[in-house]
Amino acid sequence: MRLFRSALILGLVTALSACGGGNKGRPTAEMAPSRVTTIGVNSYLWRAALDTLSFMPMGQVDSNGGVIVTDWYQNPALPSERMKVTVSILDQDLRADALRVAASREVYQGGRWTEAPVQAATVQKLEEVILTKARDLRRTAVAG
Predict the structure, then answer these.
(1) Which of 34, 54, 108, 124 is 20–30 Å from 95 (CA)?
(2) What are 97-135's pLDDT values in tens digits?
(3) 7 CB contacts (<8 Å, ≥6 apart)?
């Protein structure tokens, strides 16, 4: 869980550091489209979600349906715990409500894996990281 949180925080820091570089003004007329439909869902959200979860093994990846399901990820530093994440992109527009993240957590007790609660903050941070990366990808597309 600690490595999972560290990876989330590192992703957030990386995304936030990309926002620096001075104030170049806000894009106006040459705004990159918020709706990108070549893969069935918003490509900025899709790429950001794949990038954010790249440290986890992928179980199911469907760009037309907008679903990413990771396989169980077991932190080497904490082998008695594992996580699984599902990301659903629900719209073709780059909007916060077009993204849904769900996570499952299990702990190894008594010789078997049992379900354990996931902190709501973990899911919220994942959503924030993905949205921030998607917005950065869009800004980069605007800058050219």
Answers:
(1) 54
(2) 999 999 999 999 999 999 999 999 999 999 999 999 999
(3) 55
